[in-house]
Amino acid sequence: MAPEPLKIGYLIPQFPGQTHIFFWRELQALEARDVDVTVFSTRHPAPGLVSHAWSEEAIARTTYLGAIKPVAALSILALMPKREMLAALKQGGVAFAKDLLICAAAAKHLLEECREKGISHVHVHSCGRAALIAALAQRMGGVPYSLTLHGPLSDYGCGQNFKWRNAAFATVITKKLVNELPAQLGLDVPARLIIQPMGVDTEDFRRDAPYQPYSGSGPLRIFCCARLNIVKGHQDLMKSVRLLVDQGMDVQLEIAGEDDDGGSGYRAVLEDLLISLGLTQNVSLLGAISALEVKKKLNRADIFVLASWHEPLGVAYMEAMSVGVPTIGTNSGGVTELIDDGINGLMVPPKDPKALANAIQTLAYDANLATRLSTAGRAHIEKNFRSELGAETLLREIRAAEDCA
After folding, report:
1. Beta strands of 152-219 (E only): which ranges?
2. Average pLDDT of 148-154?
3. Cα(66)–Cα(105) distance, rounded to whole angstroms?
4. Residue 207: inside a domain
């Protein structure tokens, strides 16, 4: 008789959002390994961020954990271990108390769903409130859980010691972030801490035809893909385009991505900047587009640029390199663990439009360098950043945690 498939919960905040293609790939890779995956999420994303061909399928199979119920939350929280809760409240203060009221009813819902479906483990792709939901469910007598840290711990709110203390294991996307955790969490760092970068489907994200460097004839086609947020450095990239245009270059920049408010937030700042820089004929804001459209844009691009002020790692870089587009990034955050300057991409300082313009010029006028970076970037992603690696790590660690239980 064949063994029962492993049944896990997979909890992602506001799924499926515009940057969630990695989660969808990892989920599919888990299911290809005979894992029974139930997808959970906190709430639906804003309509303007639902952009993928698979978004409706993802929404249909996702269990959303429900509305905030402060009155019910109080009765639920009364069942929590009192000493630990008081210590967490003392450490986290009013902000943690607010998060508890927001998350308690969702935690109970998660617990009930896991019991009904026979789920033996929940993995949380966040260290924000979604992690608190899983931690609370576990304190209620629910299933073991694990976490993935996708960026600086300071980005994920209060109560981190409470969230991490009982985690069976955690995966972290860069060495830099791993090295910061002991000082931040002390004894609450899990015994099992694994460096596991995000990845891309290298079979899907490959070139339709061999890369051809910019010939000098017609517009230089630059592509960027990232949500519209000040930390993504789109404003710096636009200023670098202004510098290039002033030097007589014919440049066309397309930026795919939307702001966190579905188009009513930081987009307006960038639109005003385009007008003030006189670049309305050179720069296009495409909004949130599907993974298929991203791949088409990459295949047509001469160069990919993302000028983030700080980036934990960067799936957008990986996708561009996987498609063999010469890539320019900033030496901030964990990007230095992905791009080796001059070997598989180019690196510039963040917040430096002039340096960015110089790097773009270098690739535009050095066909041999552009071709070499195209080939090396693809090889680097194939070897080190395939999406299947994340699924394999999760499966291995969940089974190890169950064996030790």
Report:
1. 170-172, 193-195
2. 94
3. 8
4. no
